[in-house]
Structures are given as C-alpha cells and as structure tokens.
UniProtKB/TrEMBL annotation:
<keyword id="KW-0418">Kinase</keyword>
<protein>
    <recommendedName>
        <fullName>Cytidylate kinase</fullName>
        <ecNumber>2.7.4.25</ecNumber>
    </recommendedName>
</protein>
<dbReference type="InterPro" id="IPR003136">
    <property type="entry name" value="Cytidylate_kin"/>
</dbReference>
<feature type="domain" description="Cytidylate kinase">
    <location>
        <begin position="59"/>
        <end position="197"/>
    </location>
</feature>
<keyword id="KW-0547">Nucleotide-binding</keyword>
<feature type="domain" description="Cytidylate kinase">
    <location>
        <begin position="5"/>
        <end position="46"/>
    </location>
</feature>
<dbReference type="InterPro" id="IPR027417">
    <property type="entry name" value="P-loop_NTPase"/>
</dbReference>
<feature type="binding site">
    <location>
        <begin position="9"/>
        <end position="17"/>
    </location>
    <ligand>
        <name>ATP</name>
    </ligand>
</feature>
<dbReference type="InterPro" id="IPR011994">
    <property type="entry name" value="Cytidylate_kinase_dom"/>
</dbReference>
<keyword id="KW-0808">Transferase</keyword>
<keyword id="KW-0963">Cytoplasm</keyword>
<comment type="similarity">
    <text>Belongs to the cytidylate kinase family. Type 1 subfamily.</text>
</comment>
<dbReference type="Pfam" id="PF02224">
    <property type="entry name" value="Cytidylate_kin"/>
</dbReference>
<keyword id="KW-0067">ATP-binding</keyword>
<dbReference type="GO" id="GO:0016301">
    <property type="term" value="F:kinase activity"/>
</dbReference>
Amino acid sequence: MTFTVAIDGPAAAGKGTISKAVAAHFGFAHLDTGLLYRAVGAKVLAGGDPVVAAKALTPADMEGDLRTPEVAQAASRVAVLPDVRAALVAFQRSFAVQDGGAVLDGRDIGTVICPEAQVKLFVTASADVRAERRFLELSEKGLSDTREQVLADVVARDKRDSERAEAPLKPAADAVIIDTSDLSIAEAVARAVQEIENRR
Ligand code: CDP
Ligand code: CDP
C-alpha cells in the first residue's frame, strides 16, 4: 500500500518535528528533503559545482552537520537552479510511493514532487515565532548568531524560496494550512494526525 503525506512550509515552521512525529505514529518512512538541498549547498561551500553535486548525491552526503545558517543559505541559493531541482526529483518521487507509506517535508512536495499526495499540509508560523525557534535551536548548539541575524536569515531565505521561478514555496491549492504560531508541538502534531486520519 502506498500513502503519501506532503508537508511544506517556510523555515522553522515545525515541518520536520511534525513529520517525524506523524511518521512514527503511522509507521511511515520520512524524508526531510531540505537535507538534499543542504547537502548540495555544503558541496558548493566546499568549492563544488551545484549541478554536478546534485547529480552525484549519495546518502553519505546527508550525514554531518548540515543544520548551520551558512549551509541553509547555500541550500536556498542552489535551490533556485532548475538543473539542481531536476536532479533530485526521481529520488524523492520513488521515496514517496514506497510500500507502507511516506512523509516528505520541504517546499514543493505538494505542488511539484507529489501533486497526487493523499494528504497535503502547509505548516507555517509568523516570521518572529519561527526566528525565535531557530534562534533557540542554534544557541543550544553553541552558535553565536544574534536574534536579529537569525530573523534576517529566515526572512531572506523565505523570500528567495517564495520568489524563485522554479517550484516556489507556496501552498498547494488543496493543502490544509496549519499555523503553529500559537500551538505547542503536541497540539500541532495532533492537528496533523487528525488530518491524516480523516483521509485514510
Ligand atoms: O522543519 P522546520 O524547519 O519547519 O522546523 P523544525 O525543525 O521542525 O522546528 C523548529 C523548532 O521549532 C524546533 O526546535 C521545534 O521544537 C520548535 N517548535 C515546533 O516545531 N512546533 C511548535 N509548535 C513549537 C516549537
Ligand atoms: O529546516 P528549514 O525549514 O530551515 O530548511 P530546510 O527544509 O532544510 O531547507 C533548506 C533550503 O532548501 C530551503 O530554504 C529551500 O531553499 C531548499 N528546499 C527546497 O527548495 N525544496 C525543498 N523541497 C526543500 C528544501
């Protein structure tokens, strides 16, 4: 049985947290597609060519610490390139239709990668709330970015992701919007689980 859950939204909205929780709840596989773009971004920071890197990506490239602000910005810069996106489509689509169900989170899952997904969620929150969440995560990791830098980074990345010509960040016409600004993680996960239950 295949069953695809597409979870899109802007930076630090809670996509990954919700995806992991619903994957565990339903026994679905989970793919954080942002890691694909982060891995390509990291290769470019190390001097590589983005299209060559995207075509040659292996699971080993997704290991290591890709969750830094520098890698996030590099990811969103390579993510505007149509040839980079094209090189990553087949892997994501085959992951989505594996037997047993799959959750994919990213920016274009419901619109481009899996327009046939059974469930599409667009997880969002105000920029201030998202920047504060990301700031707390980065300070726990010992990174010294200020609140202002983190907010500016998140806003710049959202703008680049939303305004690009290829696969821009936007809710699919049939996506359910979940605004997590005033939701705890447990409340946000419960909303997502309910939406999936409704369509199973
Ligand atoms: O994957 P995405 O960048 O959308 O966000 P995330 O990494 O799942 O979440 C960013 C941070 O917000 C994490 O530290 C979460 O614990 C926190 N958070 C959340 O995900 N949902 C809430 N309702 C409240 C906080
Ligand atoms: O966790 P966070 O939401 O901050 O970022 P991410 O999901 O790891 O994505 C990093 C960057 O990769 C995004 O800012 C996008 O530019 C790009 N991306 C994309 O274009 N399409 C996807 N399906 C996933 C990520």
